[in-house]
Amino acid sequence: MMGMPDLTEHIRMERDMLRLLCSVLIKPGTRVEICRMLGPTNFIEPLQRVVFEEIRALGPIDSTQLRLLLPACVTSRGFPDFNLEDLLTPNLATEADIETLFQSALRLIELDESGESSAPVN
Asked: How many domains is the chain partitioned into structurally?
């Protein structure tokens, strides 16, 4: 079992999770299942937390629609400068990236289950 990630690493894992959730390579049902395993408290970074909440709220829609709707949802939550492209850079997850993103996602879920992520330590 790996130790507690530092803040930078944790925020990177959050971003990886969001990139995974926005990927065209995962099915809407899979996205919903992943969202069910996580909660907003898994996300330390406020914008990323809101993005996660909005992805979860949108439910099992296809990724193209998700990416169309997400910016307006996040903007209406108080992040007027939100740019989905910035979040998804370097690019939308490719098949090669998916494995890495899934590893980050699993790590974030494991942290939650172990209770470690509720109190980040700097």
From this structure: 1
